[in-house]
């Protein structure tokens, strides 16, 4: 396959396992430079090593919770410091809520919205100007 990402900078959030890691792996196989992030550093470092080993891609791994805008700024800043741009953004952060609707607190709802919605807003807000140029 040719996704047209050879030598492009691809950013994938929630990339320490599952779908995010699989997407980052395919982007690496397609020749992209891959920046990944997730909250758990051990899993993220393992994913970065796996992507490098299987694809030979240049991989940047930055641990952080993308539901906090300051962490998104740190992550995208590290990408810009290393590669000066972003070409591809995959907003893959997701946090499931467990429990019955009536049992969930407003804080649990806020945490879910911060992770599932605002992480994508923050990442897009910072990456879009880079992607446009």
Structural description of this entry:
With 133 residues, the chain is an alpha/beta fold. The chain has a single domain (9-132), classed as Rossmann fold, CATH 3.40.50.720. The protein has 4 helices and 4 strands; from the N terminus they run βαβαβαβα. It has a 4-stranded parallel sheet with strand order 3-2-1-4, sandwiched between helices. Helix 1 packs parallel to helix 2 (41-55) and helix 3 (69-83) packs parallel to helix 4. The longest helix is centred in the last third of the chain and has 27 residues, at 106-132. It is globular.
Brief sketch in words of this structure:
The protein has 133 residues and is α/β, with parallel strands linked by helices. Helices cover 52% and strands 14% of the residues. The radius of gyration is 15 Å and the shape is globular.
N/C terminus separation: 26 Å
Our estimate of the beta-strand percent is 5-15%
Structural class: alpha/beta
CATH class: Alpha Beta
Name the features:
133 residues; alpha/beta; 4 helices; 4 strands
Task: Write the SSE topology.
Blueprint (H helix, E strand, L loop, with lengths): L8 E5 L4 H12 L3 E6 L2 H15 L3 E5 L5 H15 L4 E3 L15 H27 L1
Parallel strand pairs: 1-2, 1-4, 2-3
Helix pairs in contact: 1-2, 3-4
């Amino acid at each position: 396959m040719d996704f047209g990402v050879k030598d492009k900078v691809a950013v994938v959030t929630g990339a320490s396992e599952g779908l995010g890691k699989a997407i980052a792996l395919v982007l690496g196989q397609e020749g992209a430079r891959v920046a990944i992030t997730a909250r758990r550093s051990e899993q993220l470092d393992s994913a970065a090593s796996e992507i490098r080993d299987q694809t030979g891609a240049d991989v940047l791994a930055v641990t952080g919770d993308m539901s906090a805008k300051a962490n998104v700024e740190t992550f995208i800043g590290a990408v810009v410091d290393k590669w000066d741009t972003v070409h591809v953004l995959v907003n893959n952060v997701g946090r499931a809520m467990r429990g019955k609707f009536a049992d969930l607190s407003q804080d649990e709802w806020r945490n879910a919205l911060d992770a599932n919605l605002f992480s994508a807003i923050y990442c897009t807000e910072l990456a879009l100007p880079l992607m446009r140029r």
